[in-house]
Amino acid sequence: MKRITAYVNLLLAVTAVVGAFYYIPALVRVEAATLTEIVVADAKTTHHLNLYVAQELGYFEKRNLKVKIVEVKDLAAARDALVTGSADVFWSCPTLAISAIANGAPLQIISQVKKPCTSVLVVDKKSPIKKYTDLRGKRIAGISPTCEAVIALASKARQAKSEFNLVKLAGGPAIAALEAKQIDGAILEEPHVSIAELKGYKVLFREASANIPCRTINARTAFIKSNDKAIKAFIGAIEEANRYILKDPASDRVVDIAHKYTGAPKDAIVHGNARLRFRTKIDEPGLAALGRELVAVGDIRSYPAKTIFAPSFKGITWGRR
Asked: H or E stretch including 142?
């Protein structure tokens, strides 16, 4: 009788294990089916580090989100991916987002990325440029005349009646031009600022961009409306990533993630990461000021105050809390 009982117990145990083998994958398939996919068009930079940290540490997944990061050439290409509907979200300079929205692009700002702007003027340590008046006629590299850092420095130069000549160059080529003495200075962002500093170049006029908001997270208007809970959960994951980064910006894990996604030198990441003050709260007055500057330079006709922010994020990332 004991042998029969033991045999029955063994049979039941085997049946339970076999049943679990077939049942568990079914549960996994059901769970996977509930994930909301969000496609992010991304021009890689350490300024988007909170996106990479949220992805690597599973902050999206635990909120039932499947985030697909698609690399694009530059911020304009990221914007175009949203306009054509091939992506749902992108990080960008605020001026690019403001200009796109003002010109009718079907997107809205859902979050700030960071503040202040960390783009600054970098010059040779023996440069004669010491004051804003010394900028008169100088050849200064910058990515675009509508870049917020370029706008800030150009405004200071105009006030000093010492306008400079902008040479359109991105970070790497700008540093190469500095080394070849083809330009007098370069307006760079991290990690290129740190790369230049570690080469012996010096930073000037950091105060020019100290109060400017830098980077926004933007989403397709239609996606925001049809995926309200998912897009809010997405920003929740970004907030969690922000807290993780700000706790120790130079930690091995944070630096490794930044290097993996951007290829930036680890020493430059360590040198400058603490300058990237990540946040989600939108600097409304700061963006409005940038909008006025874009109107002044003829990039847009008016600042799109009524349509620039996603209404569903009012009280979350913008508006009174």
From this structure: strand 139-142
Distance of CA 47 to the CA centre of its chain: 5
Q: Could you tell me the CA-to-CA distances from 148 to 97, 157, 215, 303 in Å, in that order? A: 12, 14, 10, 15
Global pTM reads: 0.86
For 12-55, give the DSSP string: HHHHHHHHHHHHHHHHHHHHHHTPEEEEEEE---GGGHHHHHHH
Query: 229, 266 in Cβ contact below 8 A?
Result: no
Cβ atoms 135, 157 nearer than 8 A:
yes
Q: Contact at 8 Å (CB) between 170 and 143? A: yes
* C-alpha of 146 from chain center: 17
Residue 93 neighbours by CB distance under 10 Å: 25
Tens of pLDDT along the chain (321 residues)? 444 444 445 444 444 444 444 444 444 444 445 899 999 999 999 999 999 999 999 999 999 999 999 999 999 999 999 999 999 999 999 999 999 999 999 999 999 999 999 999 999 999 999 999 999 999 999 998 888 899 999 999 999 999 999 999 999 999 999 999 999 999 999 999 999 999 999 999 999 988 899 999 999 999 999 999 999 999 999 999 999 999 999 999 999 999 999 999 999 999 999 999 999 999 999 999 999 999 998 999 999 999 999 999 999 999 965
Rounded distance between C-alpha atoms, residue 231 and residue 317, angstroms? 12
Q: Which domains does the chain have, with CATH numbers?
A: 35-115+213-313 (3.40.190.10), 120-209 (3.40.190.10)
Q: Judge whether 21 and 163 are in contact, CB under 8 Å.
A: no
